[in-house]
Design a protein that fits this description.
Distance between the termini: 73 Å
Number of domains: 2
Number of strands: 0
Length: 219
């Protein structure tokens, strides 16, 4: 055993474990579910199962195996779909294709395309998607909104994180979904009318100020 691997054995909690061997079992989610079913039924061996139940158990086992294969296939197809969302043309032009259907994967691809260095969360993306669907926002609107306000976004971000009451991130940066919500607040009146009622007053003041500035630029 290399010297650096022996160091952890010096810790009180691990003394005497140097020669210990362990077995690690890797199971899929459905394999784990099937193991749970077997545990509930308390049949640990085939010989333990009454004959009248064996056929049903074999059928269930086969269904779980098929479902496991389909799940793996779906996951692989999902990965391929995500790779295909960003075309070579989009990579060359630096502009997300606006004719994409709006769904969780395409929205996450949009976020990763424009904001790859920001914190991402699929749960956060899912919540944002619900808002986007509610207000019928398209990728065309998201892209045009981003291009309209991208120059001022760093200024707004810095201003918001100067407020001690809203300083929640050590990085003092919005997450991916935070950028898009700010874009929608500045460019989508329907979205803004709802957000104005739930966002902290200090942030509302900042957004109002920048909405006013942007509206003057459009005149």
């Amino acid at each position: 055993m290399p010297a650096h691997e022996k160091d952890w054995l010096k810790a009180p909690n691990y003394r005497g474990l140097g020669g210990l061997k362990v077995e690690v079992q890797v199971r899929t989610i459905l394999m784990h579910a099937w193991a749970g079913i077997e545990h509930k039924l308390a049949y640990k061996k085939t010989e333990h199962v009454p004959n009248q139940f064996k056929r049903k158990l074999y059928q269930l086992s086969a269904l779980f195996e098929v479902a496991d294969d389909q799940f793996e296939s779906l996951r692989n197809e999902k990965d391929k779909y995500k790779d295909q969302i960003i075309s070579e043309e989009a990579k060359k032009t630096g502009r997300f294709e606006i004719d994409r259907n709006m769904n969780l994967d395409s929205l996450q691809a949009f976020l990763d395309f424009y904001f790859p260095d920001r914190i991402k969360s699929l749960r956060g993306t899912s919540g944002l998607l619900d808002e986007i669907i509610e207000f019928n926002v398209s990728f065309a609107e998201l892209v045009s909104g981003f291009e309209k306000v991208k120059e001022v976004l760093p200024l707004i971000e810095a201003e918001e994180f100067e407020d001690e009451e809203v300083e929640t991130s050590k990085n003092k940066k919005w997450a991916q979904v935070g950028v898009v919500r700010t874009i929608l607040e500045l460019t989508n009146d329907r979205y803004w009318n709802k957000r104005e009622k739930i966002v902290p007053e200090s942030l509302i003041k900042i957004s109002k100020k920048w909405r006013k500035k942007l509206s003057k630029q459009d005149e």
